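Example with several molecule types.
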Amino acid sequence: MRLLKLVPENTNIKFLKWRVPFYVVSVLLIIASWALVLTQGLNYGVDFAGGQEVRVTFEDRSEAPIAELREQVGGLGFGEPVIQRFGDANSVSIRVPLPEGAEDQAGAAAAIGNSVIESIESRFDNVRRDANETVSGKVAGEFRTTALYALLAAMVAISIYIWVRFEWQFGVGALFALFHDVSLTMGMFALFQMEFSLQIIAAILAIIGYSLNDTIVIYDRIRENLKKYRRMPMPELLDLSVNETLARTVMTSLTLLVALIPLLLLGPASLFGLTAAITLGIFVGTYSSVYMGAPILIWLGVTSDSFVPTESAADRQDRKARGEA
Amino acid sequence: MLDFPLWKRLFLWGLTLVAVLAAVPSLVSLTGARWPAALPNQTVNLGLDLAGGSHILLEAEPAQVARQRLDTMEEAVRDGLRGAEPRIRHGDISTSGGRLSFMLEDPRQVDAARGLLEPLTNGAGLTGQRDWTIQVVDGTRFIMAPTQAGLQLAVTQAMDSATEVVRKRIDSLGTREPTIIRQGDERIVVQVPGLDDPQALKDLLGQTANLEFKLVDTSVLPADAARGVVPPGSELVPYSQDSAFPGTSIAVRRLGGIRGDSLTNAQQSFDPQTNEAVVNITFNSDGASRFARLTTENVNRQFAIILDGEVLSAPVINEPILGGTAVISGSFNVDSANALAISLRSGALPVDLAVVEERTVGPDLGADSIRSGILAMSIGSLLVVALMVSAYGRFGLYATGALVLNVLMILGIMAVMNTTLTLPGIAGFVLTIGAAVDANVLIYERIREERKRGRRVIAAVETGYKEASRAIYDANVTNFIAGVLLFLFGSGPVRGFAVVLIIGLFTSVFTGVTLTRMWVAGWLRRARPNDLTI
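Resulting structure tokens for the full complex:
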């Protein structure tokens, strides 16, 4: 039986030849992502913005009356609603933000929700209430804070672990790669104005985990090769390590993708954002392990000596006593 | 490394079997079939986003508790000073700034007043701390301020009884297995699965049901009331939207009324004359005697029936009501009268509760989500298996076996630990399926490499497992860190994602590394191959 070989044997791709241009582009992309996040802003869902999201299905129609809904809900005076198809053509999600100045009123979001539902049911027949989410301004603020803490804590804790298990340069490299992944994912959400919710934070943490998986596999091979080839120049050694692990990188990314894509296409509509973010993250994370995590080791001065035990004072005395140089 | 004595093999298979068996009840119930009750039946709980239901977070306003304590204290002080022998004359009572202050007319009575007031300030706790401080300034002015500890205790007590009231009200709806938990100092989480009408639940929880009977201050001219001018000791209360005079207010005496917390029963019924829906209430003996006194002393005067700060009606007392029952009318329909009756029966909430977060999913959507989630998961798994088998042949089959056992073990462990499977949890399963094979990929690629370098079969397999383990270990620890943080900071459904990821890390190392190594070792021993197709 002939087995499938996705990557030819003994590849020798010069990944690091273009490390400087790639790095410049990546750093620019990170900056652009943050510029987008800061200027365009993230399209916060009710989790983070507070407000009301109602999902309904019009059971006796083939398509939801989006234009009429917009007029109906917009006429309630809570500001412009965001109305989108959700899953089937006759299902919609209607998102109404908290009105200006209602951030501190505990019951404001819930009151809006009631009147939105009542108004829709008074105008249309056979409306099935699928789901309803209400978040007050205060709770939304707490979600924003905890989400930020979770991301920061995850990045720092993981980098410290890598630092302990490898060397400090690897910790910095991993942190940089993670920062790259988180930035680009958020930039993508700002660019396409996709809904940014608690689920997306979960997705980003999953991305952090799996991007790191990649980084660790490559780092582990770099460490092994540093011990094995004491005199090989760093760029060459990094290329060798990336090439040696390339078959695994491709295979794992592919298994993740074939598992996720059916979920993206056929899975429940409410999981679309989460799945889309993770799928995107697999590409970004794989790239960052090769181009963000590895080259930084050169610039941070990792050499073969980093993993050779340094000579202790006792050893030195021993050596001198034996009359060696 | 490849040595698996019999006891080790039995142990590993036993462990796998236990975890897989634990998953069986959950699998059966997921397909909709019934599981015999006589057998162990711990199943994975379905989250509200899959089973359908409501998650509601209620928040109390502690300032309101402080306000109520101040009113109660004012009434106690007035009663105490008035009832003293000799009477202690006082005036200029104010409750601004959260403190109660008043002046004595006679400075010689300061000590007597202090002696009278001190028992009122004793803390309920055993710490000996006082709930209020008493200060005398300028010789005759008393200032009573609540202590932080006393206020804290009052809020805690209010929340305890609020939780109890919420529980009673939800039980009255007859729903199955509601969860009601205090969260932090000021919040209550309510989770009710499979609810037909979440709006009814929210209405029921949102109603404080603080029923008050207060005398109308008829000395206030309607024109003054409209301008908001009332004498001290009275206050303006708006008429409810459903009452006969919506949009207007009426002046009532602030103190000396009766609270509706002394009820023994409340029932919805109909007014025999108008056929309107009304609520019949029955006072307990204490409430009945106070109500009798109020109505006896005030025949031909008007009193207001106030619910949650809004006047329902203000009837004239035609004759003393001595039987301890009363009828509340106020433009109810049957549903709202019934809801009020339930609320009154379960007692008033000691503090207003606002819905600050709600997530409700209809049962149809939940069932749809399970179906499409499982379909996507099955297709994804088949694709992963196809990929693994075509890339690694026999070894791919081992990885497939590991994958199947991995999914079953996660489900089994979740059932035993009584955790909840949510919609993001399904995504967690899919992600775990894609990622769990990474350990196998790492090992198999390493074996390939070692074979290419010319190592013999056994040595290549041994080195493959040994060298790959380091990266597998590090990668799982870092994923574990991310998962734990997600669990700690995440809320609700997102936690379900973290649970699956964390359990999946442990099971995937067990199945993907330990079990496959046992299978590979067994095959190597039996077949003694000279070459590996990998």
